TrEMBL record:
The keyword Cytoplasm does not apply. It comes from Clostridium fungisolvens. This is Aryl-phospho-beta-D-glucosidase BglH. One of its GO terms (biological process) is carbohydrate catabolic process. One of its GO terms (cellular component) is cytosol. NCBIfam families: PRK09589.1, PRK09593.1, PRK09852.1. Pfam families: Glyco_hydro_1 (PF00232). The keyword Hydrolase applies. GO terms for molecular function: beta-glucosidase activity.
Amino acid sequence: MNKGFPKGFLWGGALAAHQCEGAYNEDGKGLCTADTLICGNVMERLFNISTDIKDGIYYPSHEAIDFYHRYKEDVKLFAEMGFKTLRTSIAWSRIFPNGDDETPNEKGLQFYDDLFDELLKYDIKPVITLSHYELPLGLLNKYGAWSNREAIKFFETYAKTVFERYKDKVKHWLTFNEINVVKMMPYLGGGMLLSHTDPEFLQKAYQAAHHQFVASSLAVKACHEIIPDAKIGMMMAGMLSYPKTCNPNDVWKNVEMERNSLFFSDVMMRGYYPSHINRYFEENNISIEIENGDLELIKTYTTDFLAFSYYMSSVTSADPEDNKMTGNFAMGISNPYLETSEWGWQIDPTGLRIYLNQLYDRYQKPLFIVENGLGAVDTVNEDGTIEDDYRIDYLKQHVLAMKEAIKDGVELLGYTPWGCIDLVSCSTGEMKKRYGFIYVDKDNEGNGTLKRSKKKSFYWYKDVIESNGEKL
Ligand code: BG6
């Protein structure tokens, strides 16, 4: 039996370009879909989108936490915590400002060279997401984003460009962030202005997903050819759900709920569309256009590992009256056995152990937790300290659950808690929803000095890493 975290376990933290970098129009960067999102509640921010940038409106990604100019200071703090890895994304529109440009933007490429050099200076391995909810806006305006098959070739060019450029620096890659979200949040996941009331909603969402599957396989192919010693994974939003009762109708509903999400990992990890999707497609009038060679590509170039985010679990009921929205992406009803975060996310460390086991049983390939954490309001004491014991408690319980899963036999590559330095919330655009070990002085309206300070959890996590998960 494995006793605990293996040697070489990748402890670190996770970020995404549009939520931390800022410098949204500097050094040749083009606009991306995330640059059009305002601060507000989920409905205002993610379902009432205008892609015109208007004067007088505050767009959180435009400055974010100014990581673009301050990354050296931040990386030094990550190194002080002992990070072995940092997961972040490349902003596609820094490299190809319009998405379909003939040549890449050298200044954008140089920025990531500098960032990766800075990380490697401290022995921090970059884990890089190619596309984290930040599609070049030009690809939406001109082509309709992922609804159009053309997006595949632009993505392939972009992926090959960054593989070539960073082949000596980056050995862990992820294709699309939370690929299973395209169906729930089409603007985030697919860069598409697609309303849930569109009669062809499902058709368009699954077609976009198919394009992303093909694009992902082409990226896997290119990655292995260009960087033979690299590993490339898929990334999905972890959506563990429980049936409300042992009533077989609830249990079946839950099977459907799980399949809905695991469909994406089934395709990318196993290399084929699972048979159950045929009935779903037929009953929902979905007919995917699949070109010759697509299925072979998907079959041949599956991803090497499965990365996922895990924040909470949900509950499924067969009774439609029961259903309401909880969390940001998960549909479900409340679980009387769990506590919730200030944003209503149901905290479930044991669920992480269950989920890790389910995924490993299903795919028998390494797993990587690339997001986890507690979004909470932090208070800065008069003496400048921040006592975020609630965050320490959340993370501790999840690390313990991971440890149990490793003892259960799960192969886990690493753990990168989300927003290791406070950053812009994806679902609301807020700054006050903080995840970090490092506090950033900035509020929801964009005011603040951007000064960085260490929270109590900073010292706690340093000990966790130093003891390889033994000192919690
Ligand atoms: C994940 C996303 O869904 O959740 C991140 O990949 C996001 O981009 C994270 O920030 C936490 O969500 P939120 O809405 O609290 O920022």
